[in-house]
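Fold it.
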Amino acid sequence: MISDGTNLFVRARACLVCCEVDEKLALAAALQQAWLAGRLRPEPAELEDVVDAGRPQQPRLVHPRELPRRSFATPEGRLALIHAVAHIEFNAINLACDALFRFQQMPRDYYGDWIRVAAEEAVHFQLLRERLRAAGSDYGAFDAHNGLWDMARRTADDPLVRMALVPRMLEARGLDVTPAMIDRFAAIGDSAMVDALSLILREEIGHVALGSRWFDYLCRQRGVDAEQTYFETLQLHLNGEIRCPLHLDARRQAGFSERELVRLQQLCNSGAGPA
């Protein structure tokens, strides 16, 4: 019987349920360090389910409709935008840890991939929190919503559905919108945000590519067509709706096929996915 300290799933769950921000960041970094040093084993463990991911008391979570529109034209609006992206990155740490602890029958490489994602998401969050602090704000200063974690709960029963709807749908949306954000921060001379978002974009392309890798793996394992299964999953869970426009080059780098991009564009053109 291995100790909790060397059980990957126990360690990933501990990071997931941690509510204190700095401690969660440290746990995500330590998870990667321990894995790379060969000190963790993906040995199945019976663990209590996690219904609510660990998070600080602030930000206050509200329905997305209650969030004010973020105007880039004002310093306050730009801070609200940075905060919204930071909140996404914080939730992404939890999503990566959940993908680790919840699905305990995947190949070893799967765990190495999502451990790296958790560590990189922690770095992304820290970069954005530093920008908030430099402007006299901090994480928690603006309201946020719980949509990412809600999707984690909706996809908790099947890693194939998780890969389709989290990295290949929600996170892929980040690939669509981040290049424009980079251009807008460049236009006002905020080189620190340009650098932070450029790093985030590069690594998020890799994260979505991992979603594509493991989605394809699970489709092959089950003997189903990946493209058809992806669109059936979008239809079943989201009524086929996607948000547009798409950043095609970033999505290509992240593992979307040309046929998938054509079909996604058709959904955009049909009005199924308003911008």
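The mean pLDDT is 93.
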